[in-house]
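Title: Comparing notes on inverse folding

I've been comparing how different people in this forum approach sequence design from structure. To keep things fair, I'm posting one structure and asking everyone to reply with a full sequence. Here's the target:
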């Protein structure tokens, strides 16, 4: 059995208006709608095409995502991913790109294949 791993990042949909919380003077997180980063959606689509050509292939999406972005991972399942894994924990929010890459690499290394 072949396994494909697609790393994916939920991002805020910039087409939606931003609502500011007048008390905290910050973006109201409840007003943000999440979507899959467009290049990551392309990667998932390519993985799905590969799976169509290689029988027995399974696709797992691994994502560093807060709980509020869970809908994005459900969308990955809806379009055809076999499994999703959301990585999140204390200290992840605000991690620099090297930190994010290290966390994703560790998550992929511990996959059971």
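Reply #1:
Here's my take.
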């Amino acid at each position: 059995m072949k396994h494909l791993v697609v790393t994916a990042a939920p991002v805020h949909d910039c087409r939606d208006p931003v609502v500011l919380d007048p008390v905290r003077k910050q973006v109201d997180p409840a007003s943000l709608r999440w979507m899959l980063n467009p290049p990551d959606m392309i990667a998932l689509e390519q993985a799905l095409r590969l799976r169509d050509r290689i029988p027995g292939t399974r696709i797992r999406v691994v994502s560093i995502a807060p709980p509020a972005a869970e809908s994005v991972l459900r969308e990955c399942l809806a379009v055809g991913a076999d499994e999703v894994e959301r990585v999140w924990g204390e200290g992840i929010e605000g991690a620099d790109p090297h930190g994010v890459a290290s966390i994703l690499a560790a998550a992929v290394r511990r996959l059971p294949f």
